[in-house]
Amino acid sequence: MALPSADYRNAMARLGAAVTIVTTDGSAGLHGLTVSAVCSISDNPATLLVCINRASRGYAAVRENGVLCVNVLGPGHADLSTRFASATAHIDERFSDPNLWMKMASGCPRLRDATVCLDCKVDRVLDVGTHGMFICEATDVLLGSECSGLVYFNRGFYGVINSKTKLAQTGLAWLVPALRLRISRSAIRERGK
Fold it and tell me: Which of 19, 44, 67, 117 could form an SS bridge with 110, CB 3.0 to 4.6 Å?
């Protein structure tokens, strides 16, 4: 008996994932969409896995263009992520502020203040169920000035910051182990109820 789709989606909602905007440009035109199913496959050669719903316009555009840029988002990008996730937002709405974007060597747009941008060439595509798995070779990487992230968990956005760096800058680095201990003890007490 197959697992009901709703149960599976509810389970996957509890698997936190980095939020990215994947962009592409080429013969199929400019496109961008929010993607949370991105992961590293190998560092030699530098290879990523990017999963895109086959029903989305972005799937066809990335497949035909053969290139993409993975823009890893920071805490301040939740609204931008929502705009790129909208099935009804026209491409002009998604890229409405030209000051936010620059071009990578592939021609794909990169977000100027992204945490990191990975310019990629699509090596192959494997269609599984509702999604296409794009196996991509990373050809260039640009690290942003801020090391922070945006995570999607339980159907909501959460910002991630480098707490050691931030607390060290404020002289509160000693607080990190104390917070971890307090959280761990709270979780243990909560489980005992």
Answer: 117
Mean pLDDT, the chain, integer: 87
pTM: 0.83
Residues 65 and 15 in one domain: yes
103 and 30 part of one domain? yes
Do 149 and 72 contact (CB within 8 A), yes or no?
yes
What is the C-alpha separation between 101 and 108, in angstroms, rounded?
10
Predicted local distance difference test score (pLDDT) of residue 183: 44
Q: Are residues 116 and 53 both part of a single domain?
A: yes
Domain that includes residue 172, residue range? 163-193
Tell me the pLDDT tens digit for each residue of 50-71: 999 999 999 999 999 999 999 9
Sheet-wide strand order for 148-153: 17-18, 148-153, 156-161
Token pair listed for 89: 């937002």
